[in-house]
Amino acid sequence: MTTVSLPDPFPLHGRAYKRDPYPLYEELRAAGPVHRVRFPSGVTAWLVTGHSAAQQTLSDSRLGKNHDLGNDGWRARASIMPEPQHSQLQVHLLHQDPPTHTRMRRLVLDAFSARRAEALRPRIQEIADALLDELPGDADADADPDADGADLVACFAARFPFLVLAEVIGLPPVLAARFRREWGKAVQPVGPDDPGRGAYEELLRGLQGYIADIVAYKRVLPGHDLLSRLVAAQGAGELTGEELDSMVFQLLVAGQEPVTNQLTTAVMALLRNPRALDRLRAERENPELLARAVEELTRYDSAFELTTWRFPAEDAELHGTRVPAGDSVIVSLSAANRDPERFPDPDTLDFDRTQGPHLAFGHGIHFCPAAALARVELQVALGTLLERLPGLRLAVPDEEIEWIPAVLGRGVDRLPVAFDRPVCPRG
């Protein structure tokens, strides 16, 4: 077996990298499928980049997701969510292996099935329209040079996925109204020596208390919804208390923040590719084109830039590279989705691609269980934005858009936009 020839790990952080990581991914792919990389916390990992290597790695049974498999060095720098939250909130599906993963996953599959997602499409459309009805009546920043226009994240992209999620999982309105958006950032841990550590720990305690309130509510007032079924499963001994809390945590965070981010990456991609945007506008009544566009936009710039950690239980050979037991392995879904060996001319946004599925929702047993719902959400959201916000454009220069500094995800936290004329309610 060989080792990587690079003398030092590649840094995967910084403003320039987060704004456009694709030149670095192109360089890494050309040099080989596996590379040593370093994240802002100082943790290092083995990064897999090519499409074929990524697909194989995502199905590699030698690589486990349970944090207990990580070595001491990884735990010291990456597994830094404090106790008791780490033990109580970090045993969800993304951190489990069979048979535990199989047992837990089957409890959520029906709620996120393609059939259910399609049945919810009319309600999802109502949610999108209601949010756009609340936008300022005139967001033409060109008419007022000092105006930033409407922030599409605050007004729509951050609210829409949460309202859909609340419908899907059965989150009562009284509790939905109490949810704080910053809780969705709890998967971006702050190191023990960071000045923001105290605020981060307070955020976790608040979220944990919120989850306890959800569980208590569903014990007293159960319904025919996913949250009620999970609480009942815990009562029947099918889940431990920690597994229940952790699954609710995953639903609240992974069930909405990635869709928010994917909406922002999709809108940014369209605004940077005016021909593609014009085509969608001209054919916005064509559902087949919109569905293809969502797939291509998700491939082109995925909100899941990198997967969560995987670990070999024993020393392993990974695509020609020796990976010691307990070292962390991460797959770059974004790099795989821009692999020219899989997708010709990968840096071009092409709604007519015929090369088959991308890896933006993962692959193998950890394929995103809510992928069908996310696709419907993205189709409804983008279609509605194109219909209701004619002339949609950035209200600030592109270079002023700040990309989130998250380790694993891509997106923007603020997206000032303008449009040509007042929003008109549907119908």
TrEMBL record:
SUPFAM superfamilies: Cytochrome P450 (SSF48264). Pfam families: p450. This is Cytochrome P450. It comes from Streptomyces varsoviensis. Keywords: Heme, Iron, Metal-binding, Monooxygenase, Oxidoreductase. Belongs to the cytochrome P450 family. Gene3D superfamilies: Cytochrome P450. PANTHER family: CYTOCHROME P450 YJIB-RELATED (PTHR46696:SF1), P450, PUTATIVE (EUROFUNG)-RELATED (PTHR46696).
